[in-house]
Amino acid sequence: MSLAGPINDELAAWDRDCLLHPTTHTANHARGDVPGRIVTGGKGVHIEDRDGNRFLDAFAALYCVNVGYGRTEIADAMNDQAQKLAYFHAFAGHGNEPAITLARLIMDRAPEHMARVYFGLSGSDANETNVKLAWHYNILRGKPEKRKIISRWRAYHGSGIVSGSMTGLKAYHARFHLPLEGFLHAATPHYLRRDDATLSEAAFTDRLIADLEAMMLSEGPETIAAFIGEPVMGTGGILPPPEGYWGRVQELLDRYDILLISDEVVCGFGRTGSMFGATHYGLKPDFMTIAKGLTSAYAPLSGSVISQRVFDVLMQGSDDFGALAHGWTYSAHPVSCAAGIATLNLVDELGLLGNASSTGPYLLQRLRDAVGSHPNVAEVRGVGLMAAVEFMEDPGTFKWFEPPMSMSGKISAAMLRRGVIARPMPEGDIIGFAPPLCITPQEVDQVVEALQGAVQEVLG
Ligand code: PMP
């Protein structure tokens, strides 16, 4: 069987016949009605498919290929490690060189009060780990009933049973009987969608905080272990928090002895222009969930970074409860950790935090100039190199397009025809941008021109 030419058609058939894709309509895909593509290569901010099409990827795949595609430094590091030692487990105190070195690099970059990292494979599993560690911490403190977790509507924390319970998107709960008991959701901190149009942004924050405190008091703070939040909500629509929000949430958590899990899967390693979202907003988390940008997705790897105060309590574990009965086969995988080391070095060498701080505001300004005054544009928002444009049929009366995602689906398809990938995001009509952190202003111009053309084509 040749791997050139017509094999591609057979490959497409194998894809339909053998593969179940995430978040893809099963029957439509099996029938060949889903306009996916088989991606074969990438360089910088571009990907290529098997038909020779080239696209500027303005979403870094799933906001993860932060250093850009085709970095041979990372591929070489993985190759070297695979040849030397592809795998040994990290159970019962076993270590490997790249995992230990990467842990050091992470701790050097994390806020000073963070103490250790536990490696996993995905953002979802790292969030499961965080919940178990929060429970473990409270059991060791003699507070086993302190177990509930507060998340927020429109949050995304993963697709597992626990992480999916913390996710606040209805589609991830429906039919799975989620969320599990004890997983609560507070209101979304999105000023545009306040239910009272007369509220100022400061008054909106006041209301969010009052409602969150009321939830804590009615549940009983002695039953609540942790609050989990993305510093900037990602999948829910790229939502920078309203003025003053995070400082006030942190005050409540401190007051009621509730741990903070900062889900940095998207924000971590430079997307906001700061190393972490927590540092960007002055938070003091007890856990940071890291993944995506940690390896720029060159290999699967995640981490739960824990604070000194949590670690101090874990240190008190008795002989029968000192070991954490929680381990993934691939924790601290040497090849993934080698990819992580090479990635973090590249983030420094390429000055990607600086680029996110300078090219990010340029992207936002260009988006505002291009479509901000369009009658169907309700909001153009962003921070660092993440931005979103939200569309409504009538922003003045908060009238949505029906059904949700119909316009954003058409606009992103029209952008694709112009050679640019942007992401339609759930619950409304939102187009999200989160390009590789190495994007240049000239490439930003191409992205914005594609959006402008697409909006003109779809909405007039
Ligand atoms: N947390 C956040 C904030 C995410 O955006 C994601 C994935 N998009 C996850 C957790 C879950 O990560 P994974 O898909 O690697 O399980």
UniProtKB/TrEMBL annotation:
Gene3D superfamilies per record: Aspartate Aminotransferase, domain 1, Type I PLP-dependent aspartate aminotransferase-like (Major domain)
Entry keyword set: Aminotransferase, Pyridoxal phosphate, Transferase
Molecular function via GO: transaminase activity
SUPFAM superfamilies: PLP-dependent transferases (SSF53383)
Cofactor: pyridoxal 5'-phosphate
Pfam families linked: Aminotran_3
Keyword Transferase appears in the UniProt entry: yes
Record-linked InterPro entries: Aminotrans_3 (IPR005814), Aminotrans_3_PPA_site (IPR049704), PyrdxlP-dep_Trfase (IPR015424), PyrdxlP-dep_Trfase_major (IPR015421), PyrdxlP-dep_Trfase_small (IPR015422)
Family: Belongs to the class-III pyridoxal-phosphate-dependent aminotransferase family.
Name of protein: Aminotransferase class III-fold pyridoxal phosphate-dependent enzyme
Organism this protein belongs to: Hoeflea alexandrii
